[in-house]
Amino acid sequence: MSEQRNSFLRSAFILVERDKKSFSRSTYLNYRTALRAFARFGGQEYGINDISVALMTAFQRWLAEHNVGRNTSSCYMRSLRSLYRKLGGEKEPFRDVYTGMERTEKRALTLEEIRRLRNLQLKYKSKMDITRDFFLFSFYSLGMPFVDLAFLRRANIRGDFIVYRRHKTGQKIKVPLETCMVEIIEKYTETGNRYLFPIITEQNPDKQLEQYKVKLGNYNRMLKKLAVQAGISRNLSSYVVRHSWASAAYEGNVDLPVISKALGHTNARTTQIYISEINDERLSEASHKLLSDFLSR
Question: Structure pTM?
């Protein structure tokens, strides 16, 4: 295999790591994920001059055959296109692949559906029970993503708040610690475990990432079973809780800038102007009101 045919993937990885500090965390992760997918496809065989319309079309077809969603595939293509250009590519090999964004089906659960999940009679600490607890904790904590839940540490508890940074964006989030959240935390307290929940047990960062991916897959499979048991017809996944909290907050007349801050959004200029004027006390009041209304029924 020639040096030239090795160059694109290797050069792209080197560029991403070299310029890591100049990218947002989400961009950095998108680049790495796209490159890893291309490597699994066989991208190590191609140099930058081999990147062609036919090759990228074949890669996108391969992604679809491996059950990668259209929007995710599009994200990979945009990332590879950006890296291709940064490496000096002069052709238009991405012109025939999809790089847009399709509207997805409504993901949010209603509060009534979440209550049905909460009220299910499940065996204590069974897989279903644990999955339900994680989902509810995510909902109670301003729609916390599963990746942030998995890596949440005891050190993140500071007084009456959980303070952490989003894995995806690095945005600092301050979550008011409600009684319903404390009950779940105490249920899974384990001596010697620095993490709040028994999700990550590995010490090596690379092994932690692999363990997280396995646990996320298991979590999503169990959520689908929970949905069936609770009589919820729509697809239930780890993404749903975030949409559900935002939808419930909006319907509860929580201001959009408050919701944006709670979700850790950083890329909406107009929203950011308002977010800077919102203090954590107002956010805490909004979350407390939402959970009080939800738990009182």
Answer: 0.63
Distance separating alpha carbons of residues 250 and 247, to the nearest angstrom:
5
287, 252 contact by CB (below 8 A): no
Which pair of structure tokens corresponds to residue 213? 């991916």
Per-residue buried b or exposed e for 248-265, using 16+ beta carbons within 10 Å of the residue's own CB: bbeeeebeebbbbbbbbb
* Least confidently predicted of 24-33, 68-77, 202-211, 277-286: 277-286
Question: Cβ–Cβ contacts within 10 Å for residue 59, how many?
Answer: 22
Q: For residue 1, how many other CB atoms are within 10 A of its CB? A: 7
> What phi and psi values does residue 252 have, to the nearest 5 degrees?
-90, 15
Instruction: Give the Å distances, CA to CA, from 292 to 130, 139, 242, 287, 288.
Output: 23, 13, 18, 8, 6
Between 76 and 191, where is the model more confident?
76
Q: Check residue 132 and give its pLDDT.
A: 97
Q: Which amino acid is at 113?
A: E
Instruction: Choose among 261, 232, 240, 259: nearest CA to 104.
Output: 240
The first and second tokens of residue 73, run together, are 């595939």
- Given a contact cutoff of 8 angstroms between Cβ atoms, the answer to whether 261 and 278 are in contact is yes
**Helix H or strand E segment including 204:** none
Kindly list the distances between the CA atom of residue 91 and the CA atoms of 55, 77, 141, in Å, as whole numbers in the listed order.
13, 15, 47
